[in-house]
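User: Teach me something about this protein's shape.
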Amino acid sequence: MSDAVGGPDTARGDGRDGLVHREAPLAARVGVLGGLYLVQGIVWGFGGLLLLPRLAAAGVPLEQQTGIFALAGLPWVFKLGWGPVLDGATARRLGAGRVAALATAVVAAALLAMALLTPAADHVAGLAVAWLALNAALSLQDVSTDALAFDLVPAEARGRATAVMLAGHHVGAEALAGAWVGGIVAARGLPSGLIVLAGVALVVAVIVGATTRGPHAVREASLVDAARRIVRSRRGWQMLVFATLVFAADVLTSAVSGQWFVELGWSPEDAVARVVGILLVGNLVGYASAIAIVDRIGHGRVVQVASASLGVVWLVFAATRGWWAEVAYVQAFIVVQSCVTAWLYVATHAVLMDATVPEVRATQFAIFTACLNLPRVWVPAVGAWAVGGLGFVGTFAACGAWQVGIGLLAWALGIAARPVR
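Assistant: First, the predicted structure itself:
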């Protein structure tokens, strides 16, 4: 099976009608993907670190703040609808890269529109509309970027590409939006920060649009077709179960982290000062090392080892409750946890790419990644119950046992590079 999108039976042309194509240097191809994920990161970082605090400071009622973010979540719930668009003839003739570039340009325009609005009560409706449009465009950019990864990156380099993409997301969120633009906002106000973010997004859009295009499809695919290929295959069901469960413990620990900091006696300011910087360092170390190991060792094997290792980290941390009062120890735990989690994220995404049929790559991969996000719906409620019944020591121990079990499940299922046919 050719791992190029569609293979000879679904595409015509060699996909080399842009500067960045499958025969271009891998660094150039991966750099384009990393730049697109960088834009996703700056939007996420802007929303969580800059927009919400400014809305609150401007006196916008809490119900309106939460309403803005709930409304913006709708495009991500329905992003599966973008898959058939990217797998359809029109979008594939244009190319996933051009679609990603257009979507990124819309993100830039939405950020500029928000810069013209003041985060005050009389502009909430305009901000909500702009934020909704931005997230709709970003959800399209997300699906088209993942499709572009199939177009540009061969199977043996998917670990490296995924590591760069996810690292770009963190650099955009914590380094650019949080640190750099956060300083600009503090000194000159929110509009100035929005203009800078819009400029970054526009530069990425121009570069991607000018350098990529991709193969020309002659066959269309549908959401039903992609889903049918999964549910009719035992392998497909295995991948769905794995994708739904693999990050449940990670979501749970994240959901209870705020209360855990209170348990440690940390103020919100303490948590930011002690965690954000080292979390970024841990993530970047993890993704940088993943570039070197994931493709070399094997995507499936790294899933098994990383999952079991993350479980052991949580079990050891639960067993050393007496050291939690030491800030340096907690910080060391966070660095190690984030590094191992980065390996698991990279290997999991690479395995799901390996399991995706090229002919329906955007739609089927969107289904798999939607399953990765399902725990965000139900796990936080379980986290509240776990902490109430088990305490934080028991919760970390339970998460550790769960994650070791996921590693064993991946081994038992033989998670490896086999597509779902």
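Now, about its shape. The longest strand covers residues 11-12. DSSP finds 18 helices and two strands in the chain. If you'd like, I can walk through any region in more detail.
User: That's plenty for now, thanks!
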